[in-house]
Amino acid sequence: MTAFVLASSLKYRIGFPLDDAWIHQTYARNLALRGEFSFIPGVPSAGSTAPLWTILLVPGQWLGGGSSILFFAFFLGLLSLGLMGYIGEKLFREMALSGSLPIGKSPHAIPVAGLILVTEWHLVWAASSGMETTLFNAVILLILYLAWKGRMPAFWLGSLIGLSIWVRPDGITLLGPAAMMLFFQEQTWKRRLLRTGYLLIGLTLPLAGYLFFNASLSGSLWPSTFYAKQAEYASLWNESLFLRFFRLARLPLVGVGVLLLPGFIYQAYGTIRRRKVNHAALFLWWFGYTALYAYRLPVDYQHGRYLIPAMPVFLLLGLSGTLDGFGRWKFTHRARRLAGFAGKAMLVLVAVAFLGVGAQAYATDVAIIESEMVDTALWLRGHTLPADLLAVHDIGAVGYFGGRQIIDLAGLVTPEVIPFIQNEEQIADYLDARGVTYLMTFPDWYQSLPDGKAIVFQSGGAYSIAEGGTNMTVFRWKD
Fold first, then answer.
1. Is residue 121 part of a domain?
2. Is residue 383 one of the residues assigned to a domain?
């Protein structure tokens, strides 16, 4: 993480690689200073997908703002990355116990799984993003580990799954693998049904609280983002489901995961052949999680950020399958040592190489957000009036730095635009009716919405242009 942050400071300046991170910070600031869960002060809303993460960011606001909010978010990301690596190693050793290698029995074995998880570049990028992704990764692995062990009372495991929904609503998908593992750990139908029942009962209270929380803020059971993102990218549903799934499923292969693909396939074969229920639960969750996004939100931009929570499970299955297959081959002692050394060396070299690639990608991402979103937000704060109403597509930095009233064209905190989010004529009518003063957007994000509107500011940033994008532009909507 340090290398990633340092790379960003050398390229432009330290910041976040996603505008959405500033959405969390805006909610956290209003919660810290006003005691309300809102993006626009005085207007409660459910635009934060991860309310628990937003709450965890509040101490960073109490530290005084400025760089403290950045480094507190990085601290939480680093802590989450370490927890993910530690829990992932524990889960891997349980997986190894059911294979042909005794690695899970030795407390002194090199924590190969944990090291892979904390050095995989997607996961390091996520930990440095200011987002909840890495915390969610750690929670996913914790729930899967506890379910695998089967020692935690089902009621409390269900409660933990319910709590994970407060980190990301995707956490509800963990009910499937947890229920499957607990169900087949029991020998009688009575015990199976009782355990499943307790799991569901434990889930009920935190889930009900989450649904009530959203309903009280926005009138909908799920966060505004749940509906807005699907509406924004609905055009992608025209592509076949198989192609959408394949496009998302290959994301872990951009890195050390490509070396673990044969092991992933071998582990899948062994799971079916030897009827390994716990392994099957992990495979089904990975497949289902990927298929769910392929079905409803098939986007692979920003390094596959929405599929990053599924990557640790892919890596653990691939690594366990690789070592399991390696242990079953007939090697001489010398050949085994040479093959083992070569395999480890290749993993290390690929991981380090992609860390370099990831650091450069992270630095570029941060530079684009800072030079386009943040710099434009600072211009708006200094060159517009407090009474001006802004229509904005990416609201994070503008919400945090701009200090103006905002209409969110992506629908996250202005959910009334969701029904016509892709109809530019209706959007224009809506902006006219609301009395919008300025429109802030990348010019190529709309076909005709800014046509005929005077440009009052353009960022002039070099990094977006270098990546084939355009500069953030402020148009005067109404004189």
1. yes
2. no
Residue 91 forms part of a structural domain:
yes
Quick one: tokens of 410? 């992506």
> How many domains are there within the chain?
1
Whose tokens are 């499957």? That residue is: 180
| 405 belongs to a structural domain | no
CA distances from 367 to 6, 8, 122, 207, 364 (A): 12, 7, 18, 38, 5
Residue 192: give the domain boundaries: 52-361
Which letter, b or e, does each residue of 43-62 get, where b requires 16 or more Cβ atoms within 10 Å of its Cβ?
Answer: eebbbbbbbbbbbbbbebbe
- Is residue 373 within 8 Å of residue 19, measured between CB atoms? yes
Instruction: Indicate the pTM of the whole model.
Output: 0.93
Q: What is the pLDDT along the chain (479 residues), one digit of tens a residue?
A: 899 999 999 999 999 999 999 999 999 999 999 999 999 898 888 888 899 999 999 999 999 878 899 999 999 999 999 999 999 999 999 988 765 554 545 555 678 899 999 999 999 999 999 999 999 999 999 999 999 999 999 999 999 999 999 999 999 999 999 999 999 999 899 999 999 999 999 999 999 999 999 999 888 888 877 777 777 777 778 889 999 999 999 999 999 999 999 999 999 999 999 899 999 999 999 999 999 999 988 888 889 999 999 999 999 999 999 888 776 666 666 666 676 667 777 787 888 889 999 999 999 999 999 999 999 999 999 999 999 999 999 999 999 999 899 999 988 888 899 999 989 999 999 999 999 999 999 998 898 999 999 999 999 999 999 999 999 999 999 87
8 Å CB contact between 246 and 333: no
**What is the helix, strand, coil percentage profile of the chain, to 5?**
70, 5, 25
Q: How far apart are CA 439 and CA 82, in angstroms?
A: 42
d(CA 178, CA 397): 38
Q: Which residues contact 167 (CB under 8 A, 6 or more apart)?
A: 50, 52, 53, 132, 135, 136, 139
